[in-house]
Every structure is written in C-alpha cells, then in structure tokens.
Amino acid sequence: MMITLASTMRKKELMDVEPVELPRLFGMRPGKYIFISLIIAAILIVFLVFFLPGIVKGGRLVDFESQLSEVGVIVDGTYIGSTEGSACFISSGRHEVSYIKNGIEISSGTLEVDHPVFATLLRRPGMTVEVPLDDTSAVYAGVYSDTFKQLVAYSGLTSTPEGYNIPPLYTAYAGDIIALGIDDVSADFPTLALYAANSTLLDDLEAAMAAFDAAGVSYGHIDISRIRGLVEGSLPASDITINQPVPVHSYSDGWHRFEEAGFTIGRNGAQDIEGMATLPVEVTTEAFEIAHQPVSEYEWALFMEANPYWAKSNKDQLVQDGMVDEYYLAGVNPTTWAHSSTPVRNISYNAALAYCQWLSAETGASYRLPTEAEWQLAAACASGRPWSSSLAVNASDTSSPAMMMGGLWEFTSSAYVPLGRLCGETFDASQLPLADIIVKGGSYINNPDEVTADTVGVMRRDVTSDWAGFRLVREL
User: Which residue in 132, 154, 236, 336 has its CB near the most CB atoms, within 10 A?
Assistant: First the structure.
C-alpha cells in the first residue's frame, strides 16, 4: 500500500497577526496626508528654487551700451566696469549712476532697477541701459586728449615686435566722432595724422579716413601717399635749397640780440621716419634777445626760495602733480649762499616754464624758452666756438652765446611732431600741450661728430635729465 506525501505532511497552523494600520493624522487617512505632504514638498522646492533667491537678492544684470568706445560706469560711487565689458549685476532699487570717458564725466543720473522674483537662480534677468550724453564738447575734448597722448606714446615705435599690439587709436577716435554727431574735425585730425609713424598706425589711419568718408565727416587734407612713402622709406632723398642763416647780432649786459631773419632749419637727407625730424623747413624769426648762458644753479635757487612749491624737498608733490619725475634736481643742490654759475640740470620742461613765468612776473619783462628756429639762429652765430665738453661757462667771450653746442641739451618751446616737417612748418608747444618737446645742442657726454645744430632731441614734459637744462629768450 502506497502512502502519499500529502498524507504524511502535518498541517501547520499560522500565528494570528494583527494587521498593520498607519495612524491617522488630523483625522486623515495615510494616503491622503502623504499625498498632501508630497504636494507641500514640491511647492517648497519650487519656492526655494524659483522664488526665494529672487526675494533674498533681487536685481538685474544690467548691460550698459554706448556708441562711444570704453565708457566707464560708476554706480553709487563705485566703478563697476565699462560699456565694452560684460553685464553687471545691480541690486533692486534706485541708484546714482555716472558715466566717464577719458576721465571726464559725460553724464549722470539715477537708475531704477526693479525686483524680479521668478527663476532668478536659474537665469538672472537682464536689462539694457543706453548711456546718455550731456556735454558733447567736453566728451570730444577728452576723446581728442586721450587719442593724442596715446599717439605720442605709440608713434615712437618705428617698428613693432612680433606679438606686440598697438590699439586701433585712429579708428576708435573716428568711431567716437561719428557717435557724437560731429561732422568736421579738419582743425584737429590732420595734426593727429602726423603721428602715424609706423605701418600699424598708418593702416589704422587709413581705416579711420574711410570711416569718416562713409559718414560724411570732413577731416581736412592728408597726404596719405606721402606719409606711406615716409613710413616705408620709398621716397627719394630730399633735395631742397638750404638758405643758411646770416645772424645780425649784438651783445649787451648778458644778452645777445638777433634781428629778424629768414632761413632754413634742417638738412637734406633720406625722406624716411629717421630723416623726417631734420627735413629742411623755411622759418622766419622776429627780433629777440637770448641769454649768453643757460640758467644757473644760483638763479634756480632764487626761484625755489620765492616758490617753495618747486623746492627739492617738495619733489613728491611735484611728481604726483605730473610736473617732474623722481630725478628732479638729483645730484644738484642749488643754494643762494654760493653764487654758482654752473647750469642747473635735472629740471623738467614744466619746471623751466614755471621759471620763465616767475621771472616775467618779478621783472615786468617777458621771458620764455627759445623756439627751435631762434635757438638755431643763435647756434649759427656761435658756430666758431669749440664743443663744450664740460659745464664750465666761458662768460668772458661775449662774441656769441656760450655753450650752444655741448654742455647741456636745451629745452625749446617747439613741439616734436614725428611727421611735422611734412607740412613744411614747426609747431608751438603751447598749441599742442600734450606733445613732447624738442631739445637742441647735445651735451658734454655726446660725441660732437654725431650731434649738429640741426639734430633734434626729444623729451617728455615731466622728464628730468643730468644732461638737460635751458636758457632764456627775452622778448623785445
């Protein structure tokens, strides 16, 4: 008889277990309050992500735009960037805002930024502000001044090393002029063009002229083909008849008088950037008197005694004001206790101008620095003198001005414009207050075979040198 497995298995009884039942909450069944909790959590997440950041930190990314280049933006007294940069976050509310270009405030006012709330964590809302213009003339003055200063600096580079970038100065100027709505820059642009002394600046100049042509802006006559010939050195050597000066000269009490004269300064040579500084130019000088020797240490001591601002002890302030550099009167200690006739040096062009103004006020006569042409007429009179290889002044020989060649380079009142003689003229430094200054004559450390009366040296207005001084002209 077979016994089945089922008959051999004993039936097991399960234990009684009480059913699990989630507690009710506020009388709600579990499914209901869990559902509500999920909804609340979702709402909280949405609030935390989409609303709370905007509530806590409201504001907008503000993009300031201007047709002018590089306008600086100041918000509540803090510089935040320029119109050429990216948008800046500005908090909600009313803000005082001003706009500057080239250090000049061109506009100011208030800026209202609302308080957007939704989804600011994911994407900041933006707004665009167009920069207004309050004073076009002041803006132009700043644009011209900044362009001129940069051209003075970059025109000294006759070639540019690989990787060295010269900014687009002329085209930036043209863009600003067009944005300002100015239709005629013929009084200024031709002078700016005379600083296109390398190929990069020249290409930029031509692009600016094209922009002016397209906008209908008048910019005067610019001989671009000759400028390119000078820059590229492709013009023939100059062959101009040189009219040598014949000085009509007399001497009295430390001053040499020269009568009116017409002559040529410069010399024939290559028509290129290097030769442009001495390209022949016809000049005329009115009658004038020039000092026998440069201004001395003793005379400078009298000036400082009467003007403490120019004292050596005030050098830090003078440097801060842009009047001199850190070497002002280095190695020189002018004093009224000793009557030193040694020429003063390590003074700047700015300092020399101040001396002229002081002496004119003290005496009632009119004193100034000589023009390049006046200096060369005096140098022609002194052509027979030997090269001054020291700072010792021969005051006894009054046949001609002393130390015209050698001694110290001497400041003139003429501005250095790299391509200036292309126009057949010289330039007054007072008319170009940002230009560098022409210095003449060489110094005792120079080789007399390398420096002539025609040689043109160049110095910045605030620079001082052990080998530079000045002498006075007295107007008649």
Answer: 154
